[in-house]
Amino acid sequence: MFRFFENLVDPYAPYPQKDVPPQRLLPFLMDYARPFRAIFAWTAATSVVVAAVEIWLLWAMGWVVDILSGDPSQVWQDHGTALIGLGLFILLLRPLLQALDVLLLNNGVMPNFGTLIRWRAHAHVLRQSVGWFENDFAGRIANRIMQTPPAAGEAVFQVFDAITFSLAYLIGALVLLGGADSRLMIPLLVWLGLYAILMRWVVTRVGPASKAASDARSKVTGRVVDSYTNIHSVKMFAHHSRELDYAKEAIEDTRQTFQIEMRLYTIMDVVLVLLNGLLIVGVVGWAIALWMQGAASTGAVAAATALTLRLNAMTGWIMWALTTFFRQLGVVAEGMETIAQPITLLDAPNAKPLAMQAGEIRVEDLTHHYGRGSGGLDNVSLTIAPGEKIGLVGRSGAGKSTLVKLLLRFYDVEQGRILIDGQDIAKVTQDSLRLNIGMVQQDSALLHRSVRDNILYGRPDATEAEMIEAAKQAQAHEFILTLADPEGRSGYDAQVGERGVKLSGGQRQRVTLARVILKNAPILLLDEATSALDSEVEAAIQDTLYGMMQGKSVIAIAHRLSTIAQMDRILVMDEGRIVEQGGHDALLAQGGLYASFWARQSGGFLDPDTQAAE
Ligand SMILES: Nc1ncnc2c1ncn2[C@@H]1O[C@H](COP(=O)(O)OP(=O)(O)OP(=O)(O)O)[C@@H](O)[C@H]1O
């Protein structure tokens, strides 16, 4: 039976992905609620029926008191059947109705609603560009993905569990009192008015207070996770107390925002008790007065008393439910700051897959300053012939990596364009573009998965033999066989730690090389691909690299000039521009920047001191 309700909505069902999610709270939630429309309607209907039954039971209690005021010997004779019917109703039908209500809410809605939001929110965030991620804390993004779905689920739960139920209950109570004596409705209506004012006062403050508290919590997560992921720097610089202070500032923010929230609840609780006192004295006192005048029966007084006491118990719960509702909406509003952000780097409308032919790369008048006035690239134009191998050198910050990242369309260029085989890379699908480019990066971070998963990331459908062959070519096979992790997995199954921290820099780089070898893409970008290797391994890998480059268009960035001296052409970049280009010998003869780099190289490296001095 549980399965039936749990399977009413499939949270992973395909859906139309939006590039620009709704920016306002209600439409944002409605968007996620769409697959739940039918189940929400049913839940609301059963909540109303359950509330009506509860009110009706109070009325029935008044009726029982009234018949008990009659002749005891006649009660069973006159009302026996009705009393049995009432008993059966309470024993059978009422539990069934309530069971249906909670099954719909607890099993149909709750596990699926949060899951659907988390799934879709993660799918949306994963589509964001590299630049988008660079502008935020990974911890904060993760926190919002984690806390928004349960908050939205809790808000929806309150709508059906408390708000729909209590609205139906209040309307029923008015009808019931009105039926006994319409004057009894007056104290209830006055109380309702005051209750509404209090509710409004609380609710308008709870949403913003809760959003601020939630914001502060996400900030704490962002800062704490930042310290943990960079624990090496923290320890190396002995910045233990500085990191604590950095986190404390955010933690203190959370405390203060939480204090403001809690003050609201205290005020609400105290005023509520006062209001409820008014309700009890008003309704029960009035009912007694009416009874004394003979205008109300004993049963009516009993029903009115039971009703007010029940309302007294319920009002705290309703207020709590309402504040929870608005508090959770505050959390959702905070989560929206991440989850509802439009995807800015999109495939062009009707983008086609990149049709790779020979592999010509043309960069036309490219300028990219990362949204600032300077830095990055300035008016770079360049044509790389199919199969040509380009070495890219220049001081740190000259713009080499920027050029490579723009080729991968990690960012949209600010000015100019890049063409591959005559096709503007902004107009082809991002996936097809990146599938055709293999890249080995300077700081080769790996995924916290097994070595096998990491290598197969280059081509998930490769066979085991192909994967091992790639590892061998990258000089990685031997050391991989010696790996073991604390859980007892070894070799290709060993986990590499977050970002690959359990491997040495050179080992990491070889695993990334293996995955690019396996990918075997027609364009190859090497950004300091061998910088972490010792000369012996590097020499062994150079052959593999040259082998890999055959028939491919290649851009290789290197500070170690000896690794690129053999390239077809060398480009020298400085301050975002290409300042020299040509073969190694020609550039040396030119006596410019390249010649000075070469002259100052010690042991094949660009000397960092001389670089700084420049
Ligand atoms: N994500 C980014 N956001 C803003 N500015 C950036 C970003 N990445 C790089 N820059 C800036 O662009 C300029 C060029 O950086 P780039 O990484 O391209 O240099 P590089 O030549 O590859 O240097 P290195 O040899 O040190 O890797 C620098 O001034 C840098 O501060």
Short description:
The chain crosses the membrane at residues 39-59, 79-97, 155-178, 184-203, 264-288. By secondary structure, this protein is an alpha/beta fold.
Tell me the layout of helices and strands.
Elements: H1 2-6, H2 25-33, H3 37-68, H4 72-126, H5 130-134, H6 138-180, H7 185-229, H8 231-236, H9 240-292, H10 298-339, E1 361-368, E2 377-384, E3 389-394, H11 400-407, E4 415-420, E5 423-424, H12 430-435, E6 437-440, H13 451-456, H14 464-473, H15 477-481, H16 505-519, E7 523-527, H17 535-549, E8 553-557, E9 569-574, E10 577-582, H18 584-590, H19 593-600, H20 608-613
Parallel strand pairs: 3-8, 3-9, 6-7, 7-8
Antiparallel strand pairs: 1-2, 1-4, 4-5, 9-10
Function: Part of an ABC transporter complex. Transmembrane domains (TMD) form a pore in the inner membrane and the ATP-binding domain (NBD) is responsible for energy generation.
Protein name: Arginine transporter ATP-binding subunit
InterPro entries: AAA+_ATPase (IPR003593), ABC1_TM_dom (IPR011527), ABC1_TM_sf (IPR036640), ABC_transporter-like_ATP-bd (IPR003439), ABC_transporter-like_CS (IPR017871), P-loop_NTPase (IPR027417), Type_1_exporter (IPR039421)
